[in-house]
Amino acid sequence: MKLTSGEYPKIDGSTANIPLAIALRQAVTGCDKAEAEAKTEFTKTSNAYMALVQESEYAPDLIIAYAPPKVAQDELNQSKIKIIKTPIGRDALVFITNNANPVNHLSTEQIKDIYSGKITNWKTVGGQDKKIEAFQRPEDSGSQGLMRSLVMKDVNMMNAPKGYYPAAMGGLIDALMEYDNSANSIGYSVYYYASEMYEKPGLKFISVDGVKPEKKTIQDKTYPYLNDFYVCIRENTPKNSPTYRLYAFLTGQEGAAFINKQGYVSVN
């Protein structure tokens, strides 16, 4: 599909979807990458959903985002402005540690026990006799919401020390690399961000329940912690509008092919 720069909708979304948004603007409007990057400003998952249901000239017309954290979803449920939320891609919550850590595999129960504070030493899960330094994300972040909904569920997460809640996804990955006892640390992110946007040498993904996170295991759904990302518009968006046309493109077969071409995993 094609739109002029003037017709192109205002888009917001999750950090891990920024490369998709940049490529989408280039493909649809014909602009170069520099212009697409300059015009792509994403405010992260929770903020994007909240902005979509605001009655403001600055509100986005469309968002591309992962599932909202519970606090944001509760606000969406109470909003008088309703949205259409359609899955277009599949990603995964992955666990990351330093290459110097001999532990390569964890079970779901072991991860729950680590993040609830029941397991505190790597020796308990086959590693060295060292304290586990478990990093988390802030409560309003998309990945923290995924950690709670996909992994912990009804198990309460422990309170981590101050400084163990990096605000940015990249900050968590940097922390896993730079922490003084980095071989003792563990954290989590979404697969696309950690493997494509912010890949760092010296870190590795941990297999969960015997399955390594990679595109194949995300596509065939054998990796356990899968999470979709969505394209969302307001329910009252006119069907002849550029915004709805872009939504229809992303939810169709051409959109699925485009998403796969950008290195993501389409749901179709």
End-to-end separation in angstroms reads 19 Å
Instruction: State the fourth-level CATH superfamily of the largest domain.
Output: Periplasmic binding protein-like II
At the fold tier of CATH, the topology name of the largest domain is D-Maltodextrin-Binding Protein, domain 2
Q: What helical percentage do the residues reach?
A: 25-40%
CATH class of the largest domain: Alpha Beta
* Structural class by SSE content: alpha/beta
Write down the Rg. Answer: 19 Å
DSSP helix count?
11
Outline the biggest β-sheet. 8 strands, mixed
Helices and strands, in order, run as: EHHHEHEEHEHHEHEEHEHHE
CATH architecture descriptor name of the largest domain: 3-Layer(aba) Sandwich
On the 0 to 100 scale, the average pLDDT is: 93
Strand content: 15-25%
How many domains is the backbone divided into? 2
* Number of DSSP-assigned strands: 10
